[in-house]
Design brief:
With about 120 residues, the chain is mostly beta strands. Helices cover about 0% and strands about 50% of the residues. The chain has no helices and 11 strands. The radius of gyration is 13 Å and the shape is globular.
């Protein structure tokens, strides 16, 4: 069954950086719209960033603009979320998805920002 696998989460200090990766199993990400959601304990899931299939339309949640960057490397068949200037409120489980005719999800990766 097709799915996505996230990696790159972990513990980071405030002001630090992490790069999350999203790799598909069984299909190629090229032409898929890709996005990242996150869910913190006790809070609703929220969209963080997304990009269209041709990467011409990219959106970010206001609170991460200028700090997070979504991208993809078609040669490596991997999407990324580069996170910089991390804050405590960025602590959450981050999940990626890929959309074409249907949406595929990953299992999520924990990001903890703490000193």
């Amino acid at each position: 069954q097709w799915h996505l696998v996230e990696s790159g989460g972990g513990l980071a200090q405030p002001g630090g950086s992490l790069r999350l990766s999203c790799t598909p199993s069984g299909f190629n990400l090229e032409y898929y719209a890709i996005g990242w959601f996150r869910q913190a304990p006790g809070k609703e899931r929220e969209g963080v960033s997304c990009t269209s299939g041709n990467d011409r339309s990219i959106k970010y949640k206001d609170s991460v603009k200028g700090r997070f960057t979504i991208s993809r490397d078609n040669a490596k068949n991997t999407a990324y979320l580069q996170m910089s200037s991390l804050k405590g409120e960025d602590t959450a489980v981050y999940s990626c998805y890929a959309d074409l005719l249907r949406r595929y999800w990953g299992q999520g990766t924990q990001v903890t920002v703490s000193s």
